[in-house]
Amino acid sequence: MAFSRTAGDGKAPNRRAADKTSLRQPAGGGLLRDRALPPDPETCTNILLDGLFPTGPAAHEDYVPSARPPKAVACAADFEDVPRQPRELRTAAPRRSSAAAPPPAPPEPAEPPPLPEEAAAWESREKDLWLQSQGTFHPRRALGGDDGRRGRSLPTRGSVSVVAATCEAQQEQHRLLWECFEAQEFDSKELVVVETYHYSPSEFFTRLQWKDKRLVYVGIQRPFKRDFSTALRRNMGVHLASGEFVAHFDVRGLYAPQYLDCMIDRLCQGKKGSRPIAVTLSRRYTMDPWSGDLGVFSPLEWAQEKGLRETDAVVRKVLFGDAFSFVYRREAALELPFRECEVGAEVDFCTRIMDREGSTMVALLEDTRGVCLHTRSGGAGAQQPFEVRLAPQEEADALEVVNCEAFDTYMRAIVEPALNASQVPQEERRVHPENGKVYTLSEFREVCKGEFTPEEIEDYWKHQCKPMLNGSAEQAPASSRAAGKVEERHRRVAVEVAPPRHEDKKPKESKSLLMRLEAAWEEAMAEERARARNPFPFAEPAEPVGRAAAPSRQAPDGDALPGMAELLAQLDGEEDARGEPPPPSAAPAADPPRPPPEAPAADPP
């Protein structure tokens, strides 16, 4: 059953038909005036919502697009001549190209823009939405008209608006959110999604909003690291909602088809005047996606075991610290909107209701049927102040969320990615004996790839570096983290720290150094043999290295070769002992002097 408000004639007007009246087309007709359906988003993906989210001083003036005759098919060319003012909110954005980077979000002014002239008739809550959003969210035009009522008077009695505050990083879970909403057996319902994005809005909701009138989707582009808070997005969703009740859905949660019926029935119990304003789950089923464990937790039982009271801050933080199971009457959030504070926006919201109306106005409901499955956040090593008890196998198999149709989508979108990320085999890490840094084999190869061969690097890492895995002789050094942490993670060392060079001291048994010495020795001996076999007679005679200390030769990289002079002297001594003549010198030698002529012998007498 489609969600709608009751009009004066008792009929439920179509939401899209009512929204199209806000596009002020001239009497001559236009592209969207006489059409039963909006244009196809695949052929026209860059349509701006006129009059929704102004950014300039002229944005508050009435805007009338140019008149164009109606055509049979709407395409992107039909909108080229229509004058448009820049807007930050788009129903659909063009797809990003892999070649060119998407344009960044437009810069924001340092101070929020002044309130428009029509803000004199606004409520204080609407003014806060304008100021907190830096003038991006116009509270009246966002509803489709300056009256702020979207063309209808009062909400349908007993209807519910499911509000979801999401962001661009959660777009992979948007299909799960829609399946949980669509599977609800509650008849009169709508889904209000407020998303902030940096590059592109949700493709799933952008296409779906043209097909299903129960969806109200608002995507707002924000600069990088300047996103709206979750409390502000929830206030926007409550402002856009039109139901008597508001229920918050978590995009990472799983909700059974009977969830809304169960929660709203609790709000309607009791006599008039004593019925609760809000309700949340006090006993919940949780899923640890990094281990796949399904547990059950009761904050009240945990507080009783610890000797704590329900009014203590730590107990209220556990009870009301997450709005995944918040269901309340819409007028409560209009009078007491969410606000950021130290205790948390959710805890502050419930505390103000109890302080103003009484502690019984926030009802606590124990989930014994498994109508909701809460997904734990924070990472695999996140610490929790409480311990979750694992649910027995028989109890887990009988939960309603386990047997619903959206359970398979939940496992594929939430649990399987976390399990695959946590089951990646951990690479062994070892400590370098010289600098004390920790490296994996891949990191050590990256550091030393310019100086050593891969075989030398792997051999040194295996035989010289100290292991750090559990059960080895050498363990990791003590961590500097607090002792209260449950799981300790090894520190990650920057790979730009290089190992010591050759001029530093290195162990004598280093095989890489011996290999370099052997290569340098063979090169030096080859040079000496070449000098000994020099065939040129005019070369200078070699200096007797046995009588004087020969200078030590240098390795190709400039390192001295220890003991080379002594080895060369020993070699020359062996050659002298064998009586071999010294090799001729390379310089030209002078001609040897000729012997004087012998005197002629005298004749004998």
TrEMBL record:
Q: Where is the composition biased (Pro residues)?
A: 101-116, 580-605
Coiled-coil segments: none
SUPFAM superfamilies membership: Nucleotide-diphospho-sugar transferases
Q: Which domain of life is it from?
A: Eukaryota
Bias class Basic and acidic residues marks the residues at 81-90
Q: Where is this region: Disordered?
A: 1-43, 77-121, 133-155, 471-491, 537-605
Recorded hits in InterPro entries, A to Z, give: Nucleotide-diphossugar_trans (IPR029044)
Q: What is this protein called?
A: Glycosyltransferase 2-like domain-containing protein
